[in-house]
Description:
The protein has helices spanning 4-23, 60-65, 80-95, 164-171, 227-230, 239-257, 278-287, 314-328, 343-359, 368-381, 386-391, 393-397, 400-412, 440-449, 469-481, 486-496, 526-535, 558-563, 568-582, 607-610; strands spanning 30-33, 42-48, 116-123, 132-139, 148-153, 177-181, 190-191, 196-198, 204-206, 224-225, 270-276, 296-300, 425-429, 435-436, 460-462, 509-514, 540-545, 592-594.
Amino acid sequence: xxxxxxxxxxxxxxxxxxxxxxxxxxxxxxxxxxxxxxxxxxxxxxxxxxxxxxxxxxxxxxxxxxxxxxxxxxxxxxxxxxxxxxxxxxxxxxxxxxxxxxxxxxxxxxxxxxxxxxxxxxxxxxxxxxxxxxxxxxxxxxxxxxxxxxxxxxxxxxxxxxxxxxxxxxxxxxxxxxxxxxxxxxxxxxxxxxxxxxxxxxxxxxxxxxxxxxxxxxxxxxxxxxxxxxxxxxxxxxxxxxxxxxxxxxxxxxxxxxxxxxxxxxxxxxxxxxxxxxxxxxxxxxxxxxxxxxxxxxxxxxxxxxxxxxxxxxxxxxxxxxxxxxxxxxxxxxxxxxxxxxxxxxxxxxxxxxxxxxxxxxxxxxxxxxxxxxxxxxxxxxxxxxxxxxxxxxxxxxxxxxxxxxxxxxxxxxxxxxxxxxxxxxxxxxxxxxxxxxxxxxxxxxxxxxxxxxxxxxxxxxxxxxxxxxxxxxxxxxxxxxxxxxxxxxxxxxxxxxxxxxxxxxxxxxxxxxxxxxxxxxxxxxxxxxxxxxxxxxxxxxxxxxxxxxxxxxxxxxxxxxxxxxxxxxxxxxxxxxxxxxxxxxxxxxxxxxxxxxxxxxxxxxxxxxxxxxx
Length: 615
């Protein structure tokens, strides 16, 4: 029996490889159902060479810098090739600072064309109602003598290409395969009005087509559903499993790509996990899983919750910030705030929020100055630093805190469609701000253009009729503070399922975080995780980067570029140090608080600004 299984597997792989060679066209996907694990659906294989490479879909650095996305020939029916190119454009720009003078492509990072193949499928975690996407990029220059897989989880709630600038930019030029997962979130939106969603190739079709996300919808449901909020699975609880399944799918894909060198296993293939933000939290969840399948981890600015050490849940400090931060940002201790948001535009709105908080008895004082001082002090008392508050102005200005809270409240409570906490829903809006049906062109672009959490790509969070912004925020906050109420208890239970353990013994882990992070403050996430891991005797190294905030993609804004340094160079450098350590060419990097130097207005980023640690 033990001899027959490898033989049959080799025959299946040889047949798949021959079929793929016969198909031979980059625009044609070939499917294969994996025979060794029922968690994977049919495999789609595409070639990417010439003007459609793995890393930038042929756009190159200049194409990625373009202010408008790559156009669709037919707006209502883009091809899968067009959708992929546009998704890469959107995800590169959402994560990296690609502006001239920002250093990408010259000081750090690479956008040079990498030819190769992509293997994609839908995978399902045991017990889950909805699948997650897995996608593996195999460069033509894959090094069979040094088998390497970089596995990454998308940041935020992004789609499956959400870590392209993090993992692929580092791993593909080194001859590694790169495996991606959307970790149960992503941009597979479903239009309840038309009954259409997203196929494996990114195009739109009806539910009967075997979509990447098709929710259980009550009769007459209208609006828009998306996986993070409406899968019913609390995907964050399974982040580690998503990452491991992506790694396993990478081995399956390599078996298909190189049948003469199969089997690829966790014993003969190095696997390094990397991610930032939610992706960083996901790879840390993978690090705690049993077995020797993972060789090393780099986590940038991770959203991670642990027991004790001052760790706080994302939902807790997100709803706290949604209520208090706009008012606190008017305190003179935080001036001058980074721009945008434009102070003259937001100050009246923030002052009105101060007044509403005072009227509700949530702050002390009678005028804006006193109320702002009260909000500022309350945030300080629970661990917010001035650096985090200043950088948080961007999230406050874009009302990002509310968007995050609405989506996560639904996920943590596993809310059915039509029963989201606090009465929210999601829809396209007309000129008067009223819900309307989405257009065919809007549906066609959701998969490539959306970030995974509305607002964006023409989709908005819609509060219940007749509500007020302050009442909505208080409702979302009460789900955390009112633990005796049934729905609040359900949310707390969902959050508890996301709590991380520490890495398995002997696994090298490097955590990188900016001390000015205003979305996932280091004091609530990385610092408690590292403290707990070290107390448990785990080999975790910690780089804290001064003057780095959460969003490299916003460093193209002049004031942000002048004040802050990018975090990606440190993630790449940590990967370099980890790889060298695994090769036996040096120790892991030492803990460091890195004293960076802001470049100032109008100056290009230089190596001296980054102050990269020597050891």
